[in-house]
# Entry
Amino acid sequence: MIYLLVIISFIFSSNNDQFIVKSIKINGNKTTKKIIIEREINQKIGFYLDSLILQEDKNRLYNLGIFSSVNIYFKENTYIIDIVETYKIYPWPLISYDEIKKELSYGPGISLQNFFGRNQRYIFGTYLVGEKGYLFSYSNPWIFKDKTNIGFKFYNLKQYNIFYNYNYNFFLNQLTLGYSKDNFKRYDFHLGSIQIKINTLDQTNEYYQYIKSKPLKNKYIFFGFNYQFDNRDIYIDPSSGNFFDLFLKYYKGFDNSLDVGSFSLKYKKYFSINALTKPVMSIGTNLILKFPEFDKLPIYFYEYLGGEDYIRGYSSFPSNSPSQIYSLMETSNIIYFDIEIQNTIIPRKDYGRLEFGIDGLLFCDVGSSAVSYRSFNLNEYIIGYGFGLKLFISSTAIGFYFGFNPYNQTYFHVKGDV
# Structure
């Protein structure tokens, strides 16, 4: 009897032993340092294989944005990670389309991604046609073992304000230091300066006196704090999870520039509504508050309730709106809700170090605004709805939206997310 128990115990332990991870093997990292991959993996050597951890490891590696394909599987006690790296250097032209002016601005740019194989990123670019300006940015998401990140940005744009018909010059310098905790929480601190100068102002401009009543040159030093909780499975194309973003920013004004404060809160939840066809529903909200009240704010801090950022069934240009809702369109305080249903048309797939896919979606947006955080009236709101396509190109998603509203207006919007 004792011998039988020993044999059964041996057989049982032998069968279990085949599910113990005894080694980890990484394939395909020609540029990426091994440590960049290893620090994202929670599966441990000497422990049993956990299918949930395997999927989470796969998602985290993909979310780095430097791989067009990630596959993890278990074979002969080995945890095998196969990756396909995206291009390290590729054109990253600066392109922007102003849907109000119907103007396209563009110029050459280049992105150095996964620099030194350590997931650092440099971007250089300049606008040469349309708006004029330049951009230089650097980011390193993990400079120490505790996920401390650093980044800085230099940005200049010479632009025409279509809302009030003047030209201005915008300069931004920004330093970001942050810390990520337990893969879901992130804390960032921002320090920088902004200089905005109105270059030309025509006295025949109908808004001349209004613009002259405010400083034509503004200088600020700003301080910001950003907290994010993000447990989405795939950042650019989530099927489950939550995204929460809290951003506090204070602009200290100089040379007669008024101090400005801003508060932004975003939340979005994703979940699958059918396991067979796999459509994904998302429900989101966004709250923006600015201080002081609207009439005292510089024009650059105004918000517009219509357009690609909020209610996609409208234009961001107030005069394009029906008279019944005109007063809601230009504001400084916004509360906004949206719901989307999204499903795959062409699955995301690696095409030789470049991933591509297309989703279709339906959306409905609802929002209200106020000139002061104390004066919200939720009985006054606008609603927009429509459909769109979302293109996934490596770690970037570009949305094309056709928006409608109850006043029989139709608008087309383009929005990119990285």
Observations:
- Residues 63 and 235 are 6 Å apart (CA to CA).
- The chain has a mean pLDDT of 88.
